[in-house]
Design goal:
This protein is an alpha+beta fold. The protein contains 13 helices and 23 strands. Strands 2-11-7-9-4 form a five-stranded mixed sheet.
C-alpha cells in the first residue's frame, strides 16, 4: 500500500509532452556485420539478433567482438546510446532496445538502429518505454513485410515518446531517474531468480550429459533418418485453431514448448502433425525451438515435423535427445544462410541417435522429465515464480509509463 501511495504521489500532476523520437535524439541505421565477422577479441560488437536472444535491457560488456579493421567500416555505439532492432520474423522482436554502458566504444551493423539520446531523455527510460503496449501499437503502424518484418530508422523516428516536464530539464531527468530506479528494482528481483534457475539448468545439463553419453559399442547408433521421417500428411485449415496451429512465432525459445498462436490460417492445406511428433523451428536454429506434440494439429514449412517410424525408440526419449544443445549446435553448423539461417533438412536427418534398451530409455526419460519440470515448467517451481515476478514488473511498468495522449486535432 505504501508503494502504491508513493507511486501515486510521484505521478500526481505530472506534465507530459509526447514528442517524436527523432526530435529528442539522433537515429543512425547500422551497416554490415554478419555472424561470420565475429571474433573472440577486438572491438566490442553488438549483432541485432543478440538483443533479443542474449542481452537484457542494458549491458557494460558485449558478447562478441570484431577486428579493428572491420570496426572502422561499421556504425559506432557510444556509452549511453541505445541499440534498437529493426528486423525480425515477428513484430514482438522488432524495436527491442539495449542500452550500451561500456567504457569502450562498440559497433553494430545492419538491421539495427542506434539512438543517440539528447540531454532531455535518459536512454534507459526510453528502453523501458519500448516494452510498453503503447510502443508496440506505435511500431505496428510502421511495420512492413510479411515473413520478415521491418521498421525503418526513418519510421522509428516518428514514434511518439512521453517526455515528463519537458520545459524543466532538471525535474524531467529526476523524474525519469526515479522511474528507472523503481523498474530496475523489479527487474533485479527477476534477474536473481533467473540466475538461480540458470544454476539449476547447468546442474541439469551435467546430468543430461551423463545420462546421454555412451561408451563405444555400448549401444546401437542410427541416424535420425533411419528412425523417423518428415510428416507427409496434410490437414485442412478448418481443423486448426489457436491451440493446435503451430508457427515458428509461437514456438518458444530454449525448448520451452509453445504458446497459443496469434494467427490461424484461413485457407489451404497445412502440414499435419500427430500426438507424439516432434516439431522443430527451422528458422534461426540457435533459438532452440522444439515441442513434443500432445495433440493433432498443423504447421507450415518453417517448422519441421519429425514423425517416428521405428519401434526401437520411444517418442519421449527421441525428444530428449533432440532437445539438447548438441543437436542444435549441429543444426547451426549445417544451417544455410547468414542473416536468417535455416536448418538443412538433409543434414538434420543424418544426426546420430544412440539407442539403448527400451527399459533404459524409460529410465532416462523419467529422470530428465523431472528436471524439465523443475527448470522449464510454467506451472510450478522457479519458472512459475519468475513468471509471477514478471507480471508484477509489467503491472508497475505500465502504471509508471502510461500517460494520456492529447486528442488528435486538440
Amino acid at each position: 500500500m505504501s508503494n502504491m501511495s508513493f507511486m501515486e504521489k510521484l505521478l500526481q500532476g505530472v506534465e507530459v509532452e509526447w514528442m517524436a523520437l527523432g526530435e529528442i535524439g539522433e537515429l543512425v541505421r547500422g551497416n554490415g556485420l554478419q555472424k561470420k565477422d565475429f571474433a573472440e577479441t577486438g572491438v566490442p560488437a553488438i549483432h541485432y539478433g543478440q538483443i533479443y536472444t542474449y542481452y537484457g535491457l542494458s549491458t557494460t560488456k558485449t558478447k562478441s567482438f570484431v577486428s579493428p579493421e572491420l570496426a572502422k567500416k561499421l556504425r559506432k555505439v557510444n556509452t549511453g546510446d541505445v541499440v534498437i532492432t529493426n528486423t525480425s520474423e515477428n513484430l514482438e522482436d522488432v524495436g527491442k532496445a539495449l542500452v550500451y554502458l561500456g567504457e569502450q566504444q562498440a559497433v553494430t551493423g545492419g538491421h539495427a538502429t542506434i539512438f543517440k539520446p539528447s540531454p532531455i531523455i535518459l536512454g534507459k527510460y526510453f528502453a523501458y518505454f519500448t516494452q510498453t503496449t503503447e510502443f508496440a501499437n506505435e511500431k505496428r503502424k510502421y511495420a512492413k513485410g510479411a515473413k520478415v518484418i521491418d521498421v525503418s530508422a526513418s519510421d522509428m523516428a516518428k514514434i511518439q515518446i512521453p517526455i515528463p516536464y519537458p520545459e524543466k530539464l532538471e525535474k524531467s531527468l529526476a523524474f525519469q531517474t526515479e522511474i528507472v530506479r523503481i523498474l530496475d528494482t523489479f527487474t533485479e528481483l527477476t534477474a536473481e531468480l533467473t540466475a538461480e534457475l540458470s544454476a539449476r539448468k547447468k546442474q541439469y545439463n551435467y546430468y543430461r550429459d551423463q545420462l546421454l553419453s555412451f561408451e563405444e559399442g555400448e549401444v546401437e547408433w542410427k541416424t535420425l533418418g533411419e528412425l523417423t521421417e518428415y510428416s507427409k500428411t496434410r490437414i485442412c485449415f478448418d481443423k486448426l485453431d489457436k491451440s493446435n496451429y503451430v508457427g515458428v512465432d509461437n514456438l518458444l525459445q530454449n525448448w520451452a514448448g509453445k504458446k497459443e498462436s496469434n494467427y490461424v490460417p484461413t485457407e489451404g492445406n497445412l502440414i499435419e502433425y500427430q500426438s507424439g511428433d516432434i516439431l522443430i523451428g527451422n528458422i534461426r536454429p540457435y533459438l532452440k525451438k522444439i515441442w513434443h506434440a500432445d495433440r493433432i494439429g498443423g504447421t507450415n514449412g518453417d517448422v519441421l515435423v519429425i514423425h517416428l517410424t521405428d519401434e526401437t525408440i520411444t517418442p519421449r526419449y527421441l525428444y530428449q535427445i533432440l532437445a539438447d544443445d548438441k543437436f542444435f549446435d549441429y543444426n547451426m553448423r549445417h544451417s544455410k544462410g547468414a542473416k536468417m539461417p535455416r536448418g538443412n533438412k538433409m543434414k538434420i536427418m543424418e544426426y546420430p541417435i544412440p539407442i539403448p534398451s527400451l527399459a533404459e530409455q524409460d529410465r532416462i526419460v523419467t529422470i530428465l522429465d523431472k528436471f524439465d519440470i523443475l527448470t522449464s515448467s510454467i506451472s510450478e517451481g522457479l519458472p512459475r515464480e519468475i513468471e509471477l515476478r514478471q507480471k508484477q514488473y509489467e503491472y508497475y511498468r505500465d502504471l509508471l509509463l502510461s500517460f494520456p495522449k492529447p486528442e488528435v486535432g486538440a
